[in-house]
Amino acid sequence: MKLMPLGDRVIIKMMEAEEKTKGGLILTGSAKEKPEVAEVIEVGPGGLVDGKEVKMTVKKGQKVITSKYSGTEVKVDGEEYTIVRQGDILAVVE
Amino acid sequence: MKLMPLGDRVIIKMMEAEEKTKGGLILTGSAKEKPEVAEVIEVGPGGLVDGKEVKMTVKKGQKVITSKYSGTEVKVDGEEYTIVRQGDILAVVE
Amino acid sequence: MKLMPLGDRVIIKMMEAEEKTKGGLILTGSAKEKPEVAEVIEVGPGGLVDGKEVKMTVKKGQKVITSKYSGTEVKVDGEEYTIVRQGDILAVVE
Amino acid sequence: MKLMPLGDRVIIKMMEAEEKTKGGLILTGSAKEKPEVAEVIEVGPGGLVDGKEVKMTVKKGQKVITSKYSGTEVKVDGEEYTIVRQGDILAVVE
Amino acid sequence: MKLMPLGDRVIIKMMEAEEKTKGGLILTGSAKEKPEVAEVIEVGPGGLVDGKEVKMTVKKGQKVITSKYSGTEVKVDGEEYTIVRQGDILAVVE
Amino acid sequence: MKLMPLGDRVIIKMMEAEEKTKGGLILTGSAKEKPEVAEVIEVGPGGLVDGKEVKMTVKKGQKVITSKYSGTEVKVDGEEYTIVRQGDILAVVE
Amino acid sequence: MKLMPLGDRVIIKMMEAEEKTKGGLILTGSAKEKPEVAEVIEVGPGGLVDGKEVKMTVKKGQKVITSKYSGTEVKVDGEEYTIVRQGDILAVVE
């Protein structure tokens, strides 16, 4: 079973805190929006979203920083994912 | 009796919890927006919506994830449906 | 005496509950927006509305679903009508 | 003394309740927006309003339905008028 | 000393109540926005305002109706003026 | 040390009350927005701001009226400046 | 490990208070938005953001003034960074 995001949406999977520490990345944040490192699982096709052309620039497998409270969480086959808009992704971790 | 949605609207039918478990998809969500799996019943023609060109990409029979509290519920011939805008559909379940 | 709606407005007439039951359509809805079945009485000319081109797609005599609390009610020659924008019409009942 | 409205504004004069009853039109409305029948006295030139082209479609002498609480009231030579935007006019009474 | 308004701004001078009564114009209004008669003192150049082309249509010396609470008041050489946007001017008094 | 504003921003320096009185300009204002006379110190390059073309029309050395509570205050080498958007400048004092 | 910002985002690093004092720049500000001096670490590619073309004008290594409460804070390899949109940068310090 697979989720294919629509429009400018991206399916990401939050990474475990341990992995993050291994990579040397520790996130701090205001109470209002707490950023998280996540892996990109699926990328929507982009195209016209709210009448504006959106080109998708994130790629499957990239590690990205987004805000914890943006997006909608779903659980597929026992795994938890989050669906966000590309515009809610702040940066790619290289 | 049949409902034909206007513009970028889509008529969906929420799936039973049992079906969802069979397919291995269990949904979790924040209190604010609880996602649901639904089947697409009818798709509006798209075109100019609020002065912006909308192309419909979802298709009849697809299973989609949307938010429980988006849309308007109607009951036709004893069956409950929900009318949402295509932009409120997050992903297609394959 | 006749009402001619301006722009993207549509004059509709809410149908009696009995008629609705006859047709097999029973409406349920959240407290926030309770949908209603109505007949289209007059359709505005469309054209530029708020600087955006609007093409009218509903037609006189169609039965439509809209929200109870959208629009403005008027009584002409003893009959009650509602004036809504076409964008507030969710679906056509066939 | 005469008022010439600017842009998409229209000067209307609310009609007396008696006239309305004679014409067979009785208005009901929600507490939020109570519609009124008014006569169009002067029509602005239209043109660019907030960067959008507006074409004036109402004409002097037409009877129109608008909302009681939209617009600004002025009294000229003892007569009360209301200045509204054309977009606040719902329908023309024929 | 002189004030030159920028963009779509207009400098106006509220007229005395006596003058208004002489001209036969008495203003009434809701508590929310109380219209006033004012004389146009200076008109901005128009042009691109918030990315939209604005053409100035009011002229120096015209008497206009605007809302009391729109604009910013300034006192120059003992005289009080108000700076408003052209879009806040409702009508020209002829 | 020098501040170069970005986009449609302008660096201004509020003038002393004494200078203002000498020039004959006394400002009054509502509690909500109290205008101030300031000198333009640096002008941003303009160009695309929020996707809209902005052409800078104020010039270094001009005296302008703006609102006290718009903008951000900074202190450089002991001098206090304010950074505002050009659109927050109401008029030029000549 | 490196962060590459997306769209019109910029990664900045707040400068120590001591550095700021050395350079002669002391920032004051309203309670609502307290400006900060920061160094630009990485600049996003710009391009279409919310359907609008954005051209990046800030450059790596520049010192900029932004608002303390705009952006999201992250810690990479023990160093704290902030991710802001270019539009939240007020001025470049030269």
Structure description:
The structure is a homoheptamer of 94-residue chains. In chain A, a hairpin with a 2-residue loop joins strand 8 and strand 9 (79-85). With 94 residues, chain A is mostly beta strands. Helix content of chain A is 6%, strand content 51%. In chain A, the strands form two sheets. Chain A has a six-stranded antiparallel sheet with strand order 8-9-2-4-7-10, with no helix packed on it. In chain A, strands 5-6 form a two-stranded antiparallel ribbon. The first copy, chain A, is built from one helix and ten strands, in the order ββαββββββββ. Chain A starts with a strand and ends with a strand. The first copy, chain A, has a single domain, classed as 10 Kd Chaperonin, Protein Cpn10, Chain O, CATH 2.30.33.40. The interface between A and B is medium-sized, with 27 and 28 residues.
Number of helices of chain A: 1
- CA radius of gyration of chain A is 13 Å
For the secondary structure, the number of strands of chain A is 10
| CATH fold type of chain A | 10 Kd Chaperonin, Protein Cpn10, Chain O
Largest interface: A-B, 27 and 28 residues
What helical percentage do the residues of chain A reach? under 10%
Give me the secondary-structure category of chain A. mainly beta
User: How are strands sequenced across the largest beta sheet of chain A?
Assistant: 8-9-2-4-7-10
Percent of sequence in beta strands of chain A: over 45%
Measured between the Cα atoms of the first and last residue of chain A, the distance is 29 Å
Cα shape of chain A: globular
Low-confidence spans of chain A? 28-34
Sheet with the most strands, sense and barrel status of chain A: 6 strands, antiparallel
What is the H/E string of chain A? EEHEEEEEEEE
